[in-house]
Amino acid sequence: MNTSVSVVYYTSKTLKNGNHPLMLRVTQNRKPKYVSLGINIHPNFWDIKKNKPKTNCPNYMAIQRLITDKIKEYTDNIVNLQIEKKDFTAKTLIEKVNKPVKRMNVNDLFLQEIAQLKKEERIRYAECHDYVYKSLLKFNKHLDIYFSDIDVP
């Protein structure tokens, strides 16, 4: 499963000001998916042969850095997924990069759940969760444990 990431000067779409957007193309099994970089450049400032902005382009360094950083971010995620031997598609890769999942530990989850139950006015149920939370704290002294670290003995 070969996956590649590259920048594309998307000439298929022309904006009202005559500029074309810069897109990131994630190709997997010869099927491309495009992600906008949020930048558009006038054709006079894009070198089509070298596939990068010309040096006279306004904000040349910032655009070049953004392109490099985005390609690196996607490539790093591809490598990590391959190391972990996890299957992924271009779509799931894009979602992973654009919407990273915040890792929660047991402590954070308990506190969040208790607060949510109190907000919903499910007071008795919140008290039960709070009792379990305090019992676990008493037993283990802390709950700064990530769920990925919990295993079955």
What gap, in angstroms, lies between the N and C termini?
Answer: 35 Å
Strand order of the largest sheet: 1-2-3
Tell how many strands the DSSP assignment holds.
5
Shape: elongated
Strand % is 15-25%
Q: Give the helix level as a range of percent.
A: 40-55%
Largest sheet: 3 strands, antiparallel
Rg from C-alpha positions?
23 Å
Structural class: alpha+beta
Low-confidence region ranges: none
Whole-number average pLDDT? 90
H and E string: EEEEEHHHH
The number of domains is 2
Number of helices: 4
Keywords:
single chain, 153 residues, alpha+beta, 2 domains, three-stranded antiparallel beta sheet, two-stranded antiparallel sheet, 4 helices, 20% strand, elongated
Report on the structure:
- The protein is of the alpha+beta class.
- β2 (20-28) and β3 (31-41) form a beta hairpin.
- A 3-stranded antiparallel beta sheet has the order 1-2-3, covered by helices on one side.
- α1 (60-83) packs across α2 (90-98) and α3 runs antiparallel to α4 (123-140).
- The two termini are 35 Å apart.
- The protein is elongated, with a radius of gyration of 23 Å.
- It folds into 2 domains: 3-98, no CATH class; 106-149, no CATH class.
- It contains 4 helices and 5 strands.
- It has helices at residues 60-83, 90-98, 106-119, 123-140; strands spanning 3-9, 20-28, 31-41, 46-47, 52-53.
